[in-house]
Amino acid sequence: MTEQAKPLVGVIMGSSSDWDVMQHAVAILKQFGVPFEASVISAHRMPDEMFTYAETARARGLRAIIAGAGGAAHLPGMVAAKTIVPVLGVPVPSKYLRGEDSLLSIVQMPKGVPVATFAIGEAGAANAALTAVALLAANDEDLAQRLVAFRTEQTAAAQAMTLPV
Ligand SMILES: Nc1c(C(=O)O)ncn1[C@@H]1O[C@H](COP(=O)(O)O)[C@@H](O)[C@H]1O
Protein backbone atom coordinates (compact mmCIF):
# COMPACT_ATOMS: atom_id res chain seq x y z
CA MET A 1 0.00 0.00 0.00
CA THR A 2 1.49 3.37 -0.96
CA GLU A 3 0.09 6.88 -0.69
CA GLN A 4 0.37 9.41 -3.52
CA ALA A 5 2.77 12.09 -2.15
CA LYS A 6 6.46 11.30 -1.79
CA PRO A 7 6.66 9.28 1.43
CA LEU A 8 8.39 10.78 4.46
CA VAL A 9 7.80 7.77 6.71
CA GLY A 10 8.29 4.13 5.86
CA VAL A 11 6.21 1.59 7.73
CA ILE A 12 7.58 -1.92 7.38
CA MET A 13 6.70 -5.20 9.04
CA GLY A 14 8.02 -8.74 8.94
CA SER A 15 4.75 -10.29 7.80
CA SER A 16 1.24 -9.38 6.76
CA SER A 17 0.23 -11.07 10.03
CA ASP A 18 1.68 -7.98 11.79
CA TRP A 19 -0.87 -5.71 10.13
CA ASP A 20 -3.43 -5.89 12.96
CA VAL A 21 -0.87 -4.11 15.15
CA MET A 22 0.92 -1.99 12.57
CA GLN A 23 -2.29 -0.55 11.11
CA HIS A 24 -2.40 1.61 14.24
CA ALA A 25 0.80 3.35 13.13
CA VAL A 26 -0.63 3.88 9.67
CA ALA A 27 -3.88 5.27 11.13
CA ILE A 28 -1.94 7.96 13.00
CA LEU A 29 0.10 8.92 9.94
CA LYS A 30 -3.13 9.22 7.93
CA GLN A 31 -4.77 11.26 10.70
CA PHE A 32 -1.88 13.76 10.57
CA GLY A 33 -1.66 13.76 6.78
CA VAL A 34 1.91 12.49 6.75
CA PRO A 35 2.87 10.87 3.43
CA PHE A 36 3.94 7.30 4.06
CA GLU A 37 4.61 3.99 2.42
CA ALA A 38 3.81 0.63 3.98
CA SER A 39 5.16 -2.76 3.01
CA VAL A 40 6.16 -6.22 4.17
CA ILE A 41 9.94 -6.49 4.43
CA SER A 42 11.49 -9.40 6.31
CA ALA A 43 15.13 -9.58 7.33
CA HIS A 44 14.80 -13.33 7.56
CA ARG A 45 12.70 -14.13 4.53
CA MET A 46 13.81 -11.41 2.11
CA PRO A 47 17.21 -10.18 3.30
CA ASP A 48 18.29 -8.71 -0.03
CA GLU A 49 15.14 -6.57 -0.30
CA MET A 50 15.60 -5.52 3.32
CA PHE A 51 19.13 -4.28 2.64
CA THR A 52 18.05 -2.43 -0.50
CA TYR A 53 15.14 -0.83 1.35
CA ALA A 54 17.42 0.39 4.14
CA GLU A 55 20.25 1.49 1.86
CA THR A 56 17.97 3.57 -0.36
CA ALA A 57 15.69 4.94 2.40
CA ARG A 58 17.44 8.26 2.96
CA ALA A 59 17.94 9.08 -0.70
CA ARG A 60 14.27 8.27 -1.34
CA GLY A 61 13.34 10.95 1.20
CA LEU A 62 12.31 8.86 4.18
CA ARG A 63 12.85 10.74 7.45
CA ALA A 64 11.77 7.92 9.79
CA ILE A 65 11.21 4.19 9.48
CA ILE A 66 8.69 2.43 11.70
CA ALA A 67 9.62 -1.24 11.76
CA GLY A 68 7.39 -3.84 13.41
CA ALA A 69 8.22 -7.49 13.87
CA GLY A 70 7.42 -10.38 16.16
CA GLY A 71 9.39 -13.20 17.75
CA ALA A 72 13.03 -13.13 16.70
CA ALA A 73 12.46 -9.56 15.62
CA HIS A 74 15.68 -8.74 13.79
CA LEU A 75 14.09 -6.48 11.19
CA PRO A 76 14.32 -3.13 13.05
CA GLY A 77 17.93 -3.68 14.10
CA MET A 78 19.11 -4.88 10.72
CA VAL A 79 17.45 -1.95 8.98
CA ALA A 80 19.09 0.38 11.49
CA ALA A 81 22.42 -1.23 10.68
CA LYS A 82 22.11 -0.11 7.06
CA THR A 83 20.74 3.43 7.33
CA ILE A 84 21.08 6.57 9.41
CA VAL A 85 17.35 7.28 9.05
CA PRO A 86 15.89 6.95 12.59
CA VAL A 87 14.34 3.52 13.10
CA LEU A 88 11.37 3.25 15.46
CA GLY A 89 10.89 -0.36 16.51
CA VAL A 90 7.52 -1.88 17.36
CA PRO A 91 7.44 -5.26 19.10
CA VAL A 92 4.55 -7.30 17.71
CA PRO A 93 2.91 -9.77 20.13
CA SER A 94 4.09 -13.30 19.38
CA LYS A 95 2.11 -16.53 19.59
CA TYR A 96 3.97 -18.21 22.45
CA LEU A 97 5.80 -15.50 24.40
CA ARG A 98 3.27 -12.65 24.14
CA GLY A 99 5.76 -10.32 22.47
CA GLU A 100 8.27 -10.22 25.30
CA ASP A 101 10.65 -12.00 22.90
CA SER A 102 9.94 -9.34 20.25
CA LEU A 103 10.55 -6.53 22.74
CA LEU A 104 13.87 -7.91 23.94
CA SER A 105 14.99 -8.66 20.38
CA ILE A 106 14.39 -5.06 19.36
CA VAL A 107 15.44 -3.13 22.43
CA GLN A 108 18.80 -4.72 23.22
CA MET A 109 20.81 -3.07 20.44
CA PRO A 110 24.55 -2.72 20.78
CA LYS A 111 25.82 0.76 21.59
CA GLY A 112 26.21 2.76 18.39
CA VAL A 113 23.30 1.36 16.36
CA PRO A 114 20.10 2.55 18.06
CA VAL A 115 16.54 1.45 17.51
CA ALA A 116 14.04 3.63 19.40
CA THR A 117 11.89 0.89 20.88
CA PHE A 118 8.24 1.21 21.79
CA ALA A 119 5.71 -0.77 23.81
CA ILE A 120 4.46 -4.16 22.65
CA GLY A 121 1.45 -3.99 20.36
CA GLU A 122 -1.10 -1.41 19.31
CA ALA A 123 -0.08 1.39 21.70
CA GLY A 124 3.55 0.99 20.67
CA ALA A 125 2.64 1.20 17.00
CA ALA A 126 0.56 4.35 17.54
CA ASN A 127 3.26 5.95 19.70
CA ALA A 128 5.96 5.15 17.14
CA ALA A 129 3.89 7.02 14.55
CA LEU A 130 3.32 9.94 16.95
CA THR A 131 7.07 10.10 17.47
CA ALA A 132 7.62 10.16 13.71
CA VAL A 133 5.12 13.02 13.54
CA ALA A 134 7.02 14.85 16.30
CA LEU A 135 10.32 14.39 14.45
CA LEU A 136 8.83 15.83 11.27
CA ALA A 137 7.10 18.62 13.23
CA ALA A 138 10.52 20.03 14.15
CA ASN A 139 10.67 21.44 10.60
CA ASP A 140 6.96 21.78 9.84
CA GLU A 141 4.96 24.31 11.88
CA ASP A 142 1.58 23.18 10.50
CA LEU A 143 2.28 19.66 11.61
CA ALA A 144 3.48 20.94 14.98
CA GLN A 145 0.17 22.76 15.47
CA ARG A 146 -1.76 19.58 14.58
CA LEU A 147 0.25 17.72 17.20
CA VAL A 148 -0.50 20.40 19.80
CA ALA A 149 -4.23 20.14 18.93
CA PHE A 150 -4.07 16.36 19.26
CA ARG A 151 -2.59 16.67 22.74
CA THR A 152 -5.16 19.30 23.72
CA GLU A 153 -8.03 17.01 22.64
CA GLN A 154 -6.49 14.17 24.58
CA THR A 155 -6.27 16.31 27.71
CA ALA A 156 -9.89 17.40 27.34
CA ALA A 157 -10.99 13.76 26.95
CA ALA A 158 -9.10 12.78 30.12
CA GLN A 159 -10.54 15.72 32.03
CA ALA A 160 -14.05 14.66 30.98
CA MET A 161 -13.61 11.12 32.30
CA THR A 162 -15.98 10.07 35.06
CA LEU A 163 -16.01 7.08 37.37
CA PRO A 164 -19.06 4.94 38.35
CA VAL A 165 -18.94 5.93 42.02
N1 LIG B 1 10.56 -11.08 13.07
C1 LIG B 1 10.28 -11.35 11.80
C2 LIG B 1 11.07 -11.04 10.68
C3 LIG B 1 12.36 -10.32 10.73
O1 LIG B 1 12.73 -9.83 11.83
O2 LIG B 1 12.97 -10.17 9.70
N2 LIG B 1 10.46 -11.49 9.60
C4 LIG B 1 9.29 -12.03 9.98
N3 LIG B 1 9.18 -11.95 11.31
C5 LIG B 1 8.05 -12.26 12.15
O3 LIG B 1 7.55 -13.54 12.15
C6 LIG B 1 6.25 -13.48 12.72
C7 LIG B 1 5.40 -14.58 12.16
O4 LIG B 1 5.24 -14.37 10.77
P1 LIG B 1 4.15 -15.24 9.95
O5 LIG B 1 2.80 -14.93 10.56
O6 LIG B 1 4.28 -14.76 8.52
O7 LIG B 1 4.55 -16.67 10.11
C8 LIG B 1 5.71 -12.09 12.43
O8 LIG B 1 5.40 -11.41 13.64
C9 LIG B 1 6.87 -11.42 11.72
O9 LIG B 1 7.09 -10.08 12.10
Task: Give a brief rundown of this model.
With 165 residues, the protein is α/β, with parallel strands linked by helices. The protein is 45% helix and 15% strand.
Please explain how this structure is put together.
The chain is α/β, with parallel strands linked by helices. The protein has a single domain, classed as Rossmann fold (3-Layer(aba) Sandwich). It has 6 helices and 5 strands, in the order βαβαβαβαβαα. A 5-stranded parallel β-sheet has the order 2-1-3-4-5, with helices on both faces. The longest helix has 19 residues, at 141-159. It is globular, with a radius of gyration of 16 Å. The termini are far apart. The mean pLDDT is 97. The structure holds the ligand Nc1c(C(=O)O)ncn1[C@@H]1O[C@H](COP(=O)(O)O)[C@@H](O)[C@H]1O. Ligand C2R binds next to strand 3.
Task: Supply the key terms.
Rossmann fold, single chain, 165 residues, alpha/beta, binds the ligand Nc1c(C(=O)O)ncn1[C@@H]1O[C@H](COP(=O)(O)O)[C@@H](O)[C@H]1O
Q: Output the radius of gyration.
A: 16 Å
Low-pLDDT residue intervals, each spanning 5 or more residues: none
Class by SSE composition: alpha/beta
Order of H and E elements: EHEHEHEHEHH
Q: Whole-number average pLDDT? A: 97
Number of alpha- plus pi-helical segments = 6
- Tell me the total number of β-strands: 5
Helix fraction by DSSP (H/I, runs of at least 4)? 40-55%
> How can the largest sheet be summarized?
5 strands, parallel
Q: What's the level 1 CATH class?
A: Alpha Beta
Across the major sheet, the strand order is: 2-1-3-4-5
Q: What portion of the residues fall into strands of 2 or more residues?
A: 15-25%
| CATH arch. level architecture | 3-Layer(aba) Sandwich
Task: Write down the overall geometry.
Answer: globular
CATH topology: Rossmann fold
- Count of the domains: 1
Bound molecules: the ligand Nc1c(C(=O)O)ncn1[C@@H]1O[C@H](COP(=O)(O)O)[C@@H](O)[C@H]1O
N- to C-terminal distance: 46 Å
